[in-house]
Design a protein that fits this description.
With about 575 residues, this protein is α+β, with helices and mostly antiparallel strands. It is built from 14 helices and nine strands.
């Protein structure tokens, strides 16, 4: 009975697994040995080397403190500041040397067999004992000499110092020996680590080469049986990648390659079906949504996922008056042209057109179609592009409708909100819509209507403004509580890209900001004054007019209640 491809691969896998396990055991053994050396280097050898260096440094500074103290006492009227400083340094470094000698001794004592028998460790132990004894004697002798010097017997003090110099030099030599042995110890361990690493690296190269050799031999063995049908499959896959979904590969064997061929044919038939669905649904839904939904394993199920997105509502203002003067076919033609231009502006910033509601457009920006940190920026860029698209539509209205005089003026009111939404398939098992819902969606729709109150074109929430990273020119308009909500929201007007605001508009924003500050604090006269200055700069400024018209009523209310700076909307 012939062995199947699966059997051959299994045999190879068993061989490679056995080889891998054997080598892994060996490498684990080597790794443990290397790890022990590394641990010894990091936990003992290097700290011991550092301790030896600190002992040398402290010894030098102790000798300098002694010499400075001795020299200061040599004067007829010793400088007590210098004497005090030298005395303190002498005590500090005497104590520090004792502490470091103890630290070094603990490290030496912590070595276990066979590490504690290394020549450097043995020599370091001997040097430490000599230094401990020598420093104890040195401290006593130095204090005796300093006492004689302080008594005024300078000649006697100098004689004793000359006799003591040889002992100081011996201590210095011992410190140098300690440094040398500690450095040699660390260097030796580091070299051992490097050697073991190089050995393990050689074994890794050997394993890789052996595995590659075995793989090549096995590949050469089965190539004759697999090459022809697999090449045909590869060629067919390339044809499918280029868009040819009419291809079918004949099944020539009953082994795994034959099963793979049948699976490929089934896959192509499924692609044909999905391609047909995409072409149909792309006329009704954004093609990216179609592709995303069809790519989900549970695409036919209802349900949603919570994500952070930006939602936009854009309503065409003035279309009702225009439609009354048009035939139904012309009205549909104008509306389709409007929706086409708006859709291009939205999709140019990777937004998704969710639906058309009368003459309004709802769109959203967010994962998985754009990154989570860029959707507010893209939404605002798209809204500015939508205003430009409206200008294009208005320029084409006379040509489309034949109304060359007194054509109603069209405008856009846009609301932008960013925050949590639920996105997914919503509806019933028989009728579904891939869309977004939630408070953020409702808030965007409300802001679109709020534009009418303030005479603005694009309003956005504080959350959206916070995420724009200074890429746009904004004007803070007001803090409001929409109908049906108790929580307030600060709203901003989107004016232009950053750096594109004219000096006149900049002055307008500055005056309005001052008026808004006084308005929120209930200083009505000052607020009217600054809003009036804004109107002097731009007589048609809607927010300033709205605020001035609102203040008399608020003045009355503030006399009865505490004014908190939040305007309650009574209409949706």
């Amino acid at each position: 009975m012939k062995q199947t491809i699966a059997g051959k691969i299994f045999t190879l896998a068993v061989f490679l697994l056995t080889l891998t396990i054997a080598i892994a055991v060996f490498l684990r053994f080597e790794a443990d040995r290397t790890l022990r050396v590394v641990s010894r280097l990091v936990e003992s050898d290097l700290p011991l080397n550092q301790s030896a260096q600190r002992i040398s440094e402290a010894g030098l500074r102790l000798r300098l403190a002694f010499e400075r103290w001795f020299g200061a006492l040599n004067a007829d009227a010793p400088n007590q500041v210098v004497v005090g400083e030298a005395s303190r340094n002498f005590d500090i470094f005497t104590s520090r040397i004792s502490e470091e000698l103890a630290v070094a001794q603990r490290i030496v004592d912590s070595y276990s067999e066979p590490d504690n028998t290394r020549p450097e460790v043995v020599e370091i132990g001997l040097v430490l004992r000599r230094l401990k004894s020598a420093y104890a004697t040195q401290g006593q002798r130095q204090r005796e000499i300093l006492a004689i010097q302080a008594s005024g017997d300078h000649n006697r003090a100098n004689e004793l110092l000359n006799l003591f110099t040889d002992q100081l030099n011996e201590i210095r030599d011992s410190r140098d020996q300690l440094d040398g042995y500690a450095a040699a110890l660390a260097t030796r361990s580091a070299a051992e680590v490097h050697h073991r690493h190089a050995t393990m690296e050689k074994w890794m190269f050997f394993i890789t080469g052996l595995g590659a050799l075995v793989g090549l031999i096995f590949a050469s063995f089965i190539t004759q049986r697999l090459t022809r049908p697999l090449r045909l499959l590869v060629k067919s896959l390339e044809a499918v990648r280029q868009g040819n979904l009419a291809i079918q590969v004949p099944v020539q064997s009953a082994d795994e390659v034959g099963i793979l061929t049948e699976a490929f044919n089934h896959f192509v038939r499924e692609l044909q079906s999905k391609d047909q669905m995409k072409h149909v649904f792309a006329k009704y839904v954004d093609p990216r949504v179609v592709e995303y939904v069809l790519g989900q394993p549970d695409a036919s199920r209802t349900g949603g996922t919570r994500r952070v997105m930006s939602v936009v509502f854009a309503d065409l203002v003035g279309f009702t008056g225009l439609s009354e003067r048009l035939t139904p076919s012309l009205m549909i033609h104008v509306l389709n042209r409007h929706f086409g231009l708006q859709s291009q502006a939205i999709q140019s910033q990777r937004g998704v057109v969710d639906k058309f509601i009368g003459d309004a457009v709802m769109a959203y920006y967010g994962p998985p179609f754009v990154d989570e940190d860029e959707h507010p920026i893209l939404a605002c860029k798209a809204c500015l592009a939508q205003l430009a698209a409206l200008n294009e539509l208005c320029a084409a209205i006379p040509e489309i409708t034949g109304l060359r005089k007194d054509a109603p003026k069209l405008d856009l009111r846009i609301g932008i909100a960013s925050g949590d939404v639920v996105v997914g398939n919503l509806g019933s098992e028989s009728s579904m819509n891939y869309t977004v819902i939630g408070d953020t969606v409702n808030l965007a729709a409300r802001l679109e209507s709020v534009n009418r109150l303030y005479g603005t074109r694009i309003l956005l929430t504080e959350e959206t403004a916070r995420r724009l990273e200074g890429q746009f020119e904004l004007r803070e308009i007001d803090s409001i509580a929409v109908k049906g909500k108790t929580e307030s929201v600060t709203i901003y007007e989107l004016l232009a890209l950053s750096g594109e605001l004219s000096p006149t508009h900049a002055q307008l924003c500055s005056s309005y900001a001052e008026g808004l500050r006084y308005y929120r604090s209930g200083e009505w006269e000052a607020a009217i004054k600054w809003f009036g200055r804004a109107l002097e700069i731009a007589p048609s400024d809607g927010p300033s007019r709205t605020m001035i018209a609102r203040i008399p009523e608020l003045r009355k209310l503030s006399e009865e209640n505490t004014w908190d700076g939040i305007f309650m909307l009574t209409e949706k």
